[in-house]
Amino acid sequence: MNRVVTLASRPEGFPDEANFELVEQPVPEPGPGEVLVRVLWTSVDPYQRGRMSEARSYAKPVQVGEVMTAQAVGEAIESNDSRFVPGDLVVGQLGWQDYAVVRAGSVRKVPAQLDPPTLALHVLGTTGFTAYFGLLDVCEPKPGDTVVVSGAAGAVGQIVGQLAKLAGCRTVGIAGGPEKAAELRELYSYDVAIDYKNDDVPASLKEACPDGVDVYFDNVGGEISAAVHGRLNVGARIAICGQVSQYNAVRPEPSFHPGLLIVFRAKMQGFLVSDYAHRFDEAAHRLFRWIAEGKLQWREDVTDGLENAPRAFLGMLRGENRGKALVKVADRF
Amino acid sequence: MNRVVTLASRPEGFPDEANFELVEQPVPEPGPGEVLVRVLWTSVDPYQRGRMSEARSYAKPVQVGEVMTAQAVGEAIESNDSRFVPGDLVVGQLGWQDYAVVRAGSVRKVPAQLDPPTLALHVLGTTGFTAYFGLLDVCEPKPGDTVVVSGAAGAVGQIVGQLAKLAGCRTVGIAGGPEKAAELRELYSYDVAIDYKNDDVPASLKEACPDGVDVYFDNVGGEISAAVHGRLNVGARIAICGQVSQYNAVRPEPSFHPGLLIVFRAKMQGFLVSDYAHRFDEAAHRLFRWIAEGKLQWREDVTDGLENAPRAFLGMLRGENRGKALVKVADRF
Asked: Is the pLDDT confidence value at B16 over 80?
């Protein structure tokens, strides 16, 4: 049988476990051009909150009763396409379930030498590519720039800070709690860490950014972002990667004055990593090399058992994870 | 004597004539490297509202008791700099007054063939350059794009629409009142005009932009902009040129959700024409040619008499002007 975590109901405000249901279904059969994949690790990420609701967004919502959408790494166990043979590791939108049938063209092979293969779910996958294109393409960092990152200890933020250091920038990371703040400095090479749960964020930013803010990589929105906007330099670039502080608001309030962009001749740009799919190989090649050279640190926070995916997801939304939040579904055959 | 319109007090909310005072002072004497200029036409523009208040902005506020800052065209009547001789027409920040002493390097010569010389205060001056760089550099319009302009009948907006047509775009202008809407279509070549005072703006935009909005040149902010944001296309570019709907608010409310930029992978960028000073010659050359070829229409709304500058300014803030609002101060000798 195939265990499947479905969306049971749409949340109002912060979701809870009752919004999900674990059901059993027959293992699906792959049709022509399709591959049957056994999921080994699946992922929990902030964007999934958006897919739970019907508000207009860049992707269709998950329907009630459907499997929760998720990036996952799995093992091909039956293939009706010449690109894959049983035993291949693949990564793609496999969902929160034990088995997925996917079109062969919708998944990528995980290179056999990738150790651990879960790197394909973070540094060498969506979150790493998000950091790479969001920082390097959208923000155009220059040596000497001060780069501020919110959600800095998250899967994207931890990579953004390190890439900004590689680009010769000074980095200031904002995260919640003293443990994460220490991790920002010690593991992810941030020059300054601000703990928004205990520090006075505007005062800390003032002290941390004596030359102002040239680049702001925004994962959170809301009050933290408003504090960063108060310290922008002329010509600042703001990448809108996420607005996680707003995702659970029943009616999010507008939080930004566009006129501020005139004062600082600043650019604010939203982006989606999927728009850079034609350049994923470039990003993967460079990120892989930086990992091999010890220049990119990363951390995983693995929850065991598919049935615990909703709990891991809710904990991630509350910021309880330390490193990339993953769910281990099965051991490899 | 030199008549000078000074800032008498800072407005709370919408300004009135009591915020200004007409005083008489001795005509100033030019020092070394300075030029004494007799003002012929002075200008009233939305940005002057910002200079009346102490809120943080890109330029220092006018101090109470100081002459109101303004672009103006005048005639050099005494010059202590080799670049100017008496009789030269110059344009620069001469203010609302009869006579100004300026550093020679802070004003530009108005070419003798410019007819009328007031073109240096709009199409071939700050507002024309604002339209040129704001549209062409910030928004990067492409043939076939749908370009929406708010404040479309204003000094900047009327040029933006025509430049967008020259770039092969479809243009939708938003202005207040049926007369301005007619002018948008008939004089400034807008494909569609929306009268925000009488039309249902969201419904009109939906009808006017069946293929969505690729470029939004924003002069006004507030509710009109929120309606445009609802119709953006993926990859849309938004130039923040002004936010005139907010300038008189005692406490402007945030009006924008940055998360919208993710949904549309859109860019919102503020700019100031002064940052393009090194390219003013390029803009002037092209705009002049388009005027000569009859490809750029323009209109002036001239108020007579320096003493009426505050009234002209307040009328412009209320949107009563038709074309670029100017004040005629004196005839040429």
From this structure: yes
Assess whether A132 and A92 both reside in one domain: no
Q: Which domain holds residue B181?
A: 126-274
* A286 located within any domain: no
- A166 conformational bin, left if phi > 0, alpha if psi -120 to 50, beta if neither: alpha
Question: Are B241 and B218 spatial neighbours (Cβ–Cβ below 8 Å)?
Answer: yes
Per DSSP, the three-state class of B284 is helix
First to last CA, chain B: 17
Helices (H), chain B: 47-51, 126-133, 157-166, 178-186, 201-208, 222-229, 259-263, 280-292, 309-317
> What count of Cα atoms within 13 Å lies in the side-chain half-sphere of residue A66?
14
Report which residue type is found at B27: V
Q: Parallel, antiparallel, or unpaired for β B170-175 and B146-150?
A: parallel
B287 located within any domain = no
Q: Could you tell me if residue A112 is inside a domain? A: yes
Q: Which residues of A touch B264 (CB under 8 A)?
A: 58, 270
Are A263 and A131 found together in one domain? yes
Write down the pLDDT at residue A24.
98
Residue B17 sits in a domain of what CATH number? Answer: 3.90.180.10
In the chain, the amino acid numbered B113 is: Q
**Cα gap A261→A195, rounded to integer Å:** 27
| A67, A95 Cβ separation under 8 angstroms | yes
- Tens digit of pLDDT for each residue in A276-319? 999 999 999 999 999 999 999 999 999 999 999 999 999 999 99
Instruction: Determine the 3-state secondary structure of B110 from DSSP.
Output: coil
Shared-domain flag, residues B131 and B202: yes
Token pair 């027959």: residue: A26
What are the residue ranges in chain A where pLDDT is below 70?
none
Nearest-CB residue to A240 (from B240, B241, B259): B259
Q: How far apart are CA A250 and CA A243, in angstroms?
A: 14
Task: Assign B255 a pLDDT band (cuts: 50, 70, 90).
Answer: confident
- Short-list B152, B119, B138, B109, CA closest to B244: B152
Of B225, B267, B275, the CB nearest to A267: B267
How many domains does chain B fold into? 2
Find the distance separating the first CA and the last CA of chain A, reported in whole Å.
17
Element (H, E) at B105: none
Taken as a whole, chain B contains a residue count of 333
Whether B294 maps to a domain, the answer reads: no
Q: Is B2 in contact with B26 (CB distance < 8 Å)?
A: yes
- Kindly report, residue by residue over B135-188, the tens digit of the pLDDT: 999 999 999 999 999 999 999 999 999 999 999 999 999 999 999 999 999 999
Say if A255 is an interface residue toward chain B (CB within 8 Å). Answer: yes
Whole-angstrom Cα distance, residue A40 to residue A146? Answer: 39
What residues of chain B lie within 8 A of the CB of A268, using their CB? 258, 261, 267-269
Q: How far apart are CA B58 and CA B47, in angstroms?
A: 11
CA distance to A253, B14, B58, per residue, from B253 (Å): 10, 16, 20
Q: Pick the residue from chain A with its C-alpha nearest to B275.
A: A265
Residues A154 and A169 in one domain: yes
Tokens encoding B112:
């003798």
* B55 vs A: CB within 8 A: no
**Measured between alpha carbons, how far is A133 from A272 in angstroms, rounded to an integer?**
9
- Chain B, residues 235-254, CB within 8 A of chain A, namely 238, 240-243, 246, 252-254
Question: CB–CB of A195/A178 below 8 Å?
Answer: yes
